[in-house]
Amino acid sequence: MFNQSELKILVVDDEADLESLVRQKFRHQIREGIYDFVFALNGVEALARIIEYPEIAIVLSDINMPEMDGLTLLTRLKELKNTGLKTVIVSAYGDMDNIREAMNRGAFDFITKPIDFSDLEITIKKTLEEIQEVRRSLAEHYQLLSIQQDLNTAREIQQAILPKDFPPFPDISSFDVFASMVAAREVGGDFFDFFLMDKERLGFVIGDVSGKGVPAAIFMAICRTLIRASGVKGASAVNCISAVNNLLCKESVSSMFVTVFYGILDIGSGRVEYVNAGHNAPYVISGEKIEPVELTGGLALGIVENFEFKAKSLMLKPGDQMILFSDGVTEAFNANNQAFGNEKLEAILRNNVNSQLDAMVNEIIAEVNAFSYGVPQSDDLTLLAIRYNGP
Q: Are the CB atoms for 261 and 324 separated by under 8 Å?
C-alpha cells in the first residue's frame, strides 16, 4: 500500500496556459494534499522531471510537442521498465491513428481535447487504483524474493551443519561412512550425524522432525546439536537419548517431535549399542542376508518427559553394513499413489551388497526419484550407511 498524497502527476504539454488551468481546476485537491502536479513543456523536460521526482506515478502527456513528442516519450518511458508508472495520452478528438499508436506503445489510457476535467479526474482516480494494485503486487513480489533469499540462506546454513566431507575419517580404516539428505523444500526436517566419541567409539544418528519448512529445520538443528553435545561427552545411548528427550519436552513448541535412531559402534569389536526412538528400523546387510534391526520400543523425542528408553545391541562382522533411512524413502509415492515401500528398498540393497557406500546411497535416491517421477517430493530423503571393516 502507498500513500497517494506522496505521489505526483506529471503534465506534459507545450501549451503554457495549461498549468494555470490545471492548478485552478484542481485547487481544492492540491490544497488538501490529494494531488500534487509537476509540469513539463515537452518529452525532454518530462524525462528530466521523472529523474528529479521519483514520486511521479502518472504522466499526462500531449502527443504533438516540440523537441520530443508524446509518442517518442512513450517509447522512452517503456525503456524504463517501471510498471508503477502509467501514462495517459491527451489527443485531439478523432485522432484515432495517434491514439491507437499510443496504446500500442504502452499508454494506459487516453483523454481527448478539449479536456473535460471531470473526465480527467475520473481517469486519474482509475489510473491511481491501477498503480496501487501494481505496487501492491510488486511489494508482495519483493517480499517473496526476500523470503526466498532467507530460505536459501537457511538451506546453506543447514547443509553446512551436516557432515559433507567423505570419507570423514581418512586415517581410520576400521569403518566407512556415507550419508545424504535431499530436502523436499528449501530446508528440511531430517538430519544425520556421526562423530568420534573417543578412539574406540563412533556415534551415529539419523532423525526425522515432525512438520516441514523452517520450523522443522530449526528444530532439526536443535536436536542434532543436543545429541552431538551429549554423545561426544561419552554418554551411553540410553543416557544420551533420555537427556535430549527431557530437554526437548521442556523446551518444545508447537507440539513438535522427532524420531531418532542413535547408535554407538565399538570400533574394536563391531558391537553396536543403539536406541530407536520411533524411527524406521535400519537394515543390517551381512553377506547375502538383509534384516531389519530389532526395535527398542522407544517413543519419538519431545513427547513424554522422563520416558524410559531401552537400548539393545547387535554385532557387526567385518564387511557388514548398516543402512539407516528416513520414511521419505519408503513412503515416497508415485502417480498411482503407490508407496515405494520396504520391498523395493531391500531389493536395491540386495543388488548393491558389494557396492561402495556412496554408490549404494545414490542408487537408492535415484530409484526413489525415478519411482515418484512427476509427483512433487513430499518428504525429505535421508540415508546413512556404515560399513564395518574390522579392527
A: yes
Of the candidates 218, 240, 24, 241, the one whose C-alpha atom is nearest the C-alpha of residue 117 is: 24
Residue 55, H or E segment: none
CB 224 within 8 A of CB 216: no
With CA atoms as reference, report the closest residue to 65 among 51, 81, 37, 45.
Answer: 45
Task: Kindly state the cell numbers that stand for 290.
Answer: 538383509
What does the pLDDT average to over 285-293?
A: 95
**DSSP at 6:** G
Is pTM beyond 0.70? Reply is no
Measured CA to CA, the distance from residue 10 to residue 46 in angstroms comes to 8
Distances (CA, A) of 46 to 23, 62, 130: 18, 11, 22
3-state percent helix, strand, coil for the chain, nearest multiple of 5: 40, 25, 35
Domains defined along the chain, listed by start: 4-141 (3.40.50.2300), 162-388 (3.60.40.10)
Which cell numbers hold the place of 214?
523452517
* pLDDT (mean) for 260-286: 97
- Rounded CA separation 115/90 (Å): 8
Rounded Cα–Cα distance for residues 13 and 294 (Å): 85
Q: Grid coordinates 485522432 are at which residue?
A: 95
| Residue 171, all three cell numbers | 586415517
Residues 6+ apart with CB under 8 A from 254: 211, 215
Burial of 324: CB neighbours in 10 Å, binned 0-12, 13-18, 19+:
buried
